[in-house]
Here is the input.
Amino acid sequence: GWEYCAVFLVYVSLALFGVMNVVTSVFVESAVLSAQHSKDLIMEAKQSERDIAMGHMRQVFHQIDEDGSGEITAPEMEVFLQDPSLRKYVEALEINAENARMLFRLLDKDGSKKVDIEEFCEGCMRLQGDAKSFDIHMIMFQNKQFLAKWSDFTVYVEDR
Here is the structure.
């Protein structure tokens, strides 16, 4: 009778619902794996770009280091950046080399008046490209902190 027909329709509906859930889960899992794979590819490409840039910077370092001491001095940097072809090579690495002395000071983190290969490569990686919004906001924040401390200091000095 009609009871068997109703039970059969409920059974078919539940079976169809279950199969559709399985098919949907397969598509969702495939999409998630694809997105994860894409993320991994982007990270690998960025790391590969960084490794290539570091290799080029090491080559530049060895060209600048004329005496082979393993360290660059300010005069070596100035002589290197006076050569137009070498200057263009540094600029091709997205590093602005307009002011050789300032570039040297930015690279010399420890203030030793000499830049070793690690300081040079890390500094060049930091100096590549344009300033990001984060960089600008970080400088503004540090400036505000400095001005507040300076204001406190001037009040302290005036009171004495």
Q: What stands out?
A: The first helix runs from residue 2 to 64. The chain has a mean pLDDT of 84. Helices lie at 2-64, 74-82, 84-92, 100-107, 117-127, 133-159.
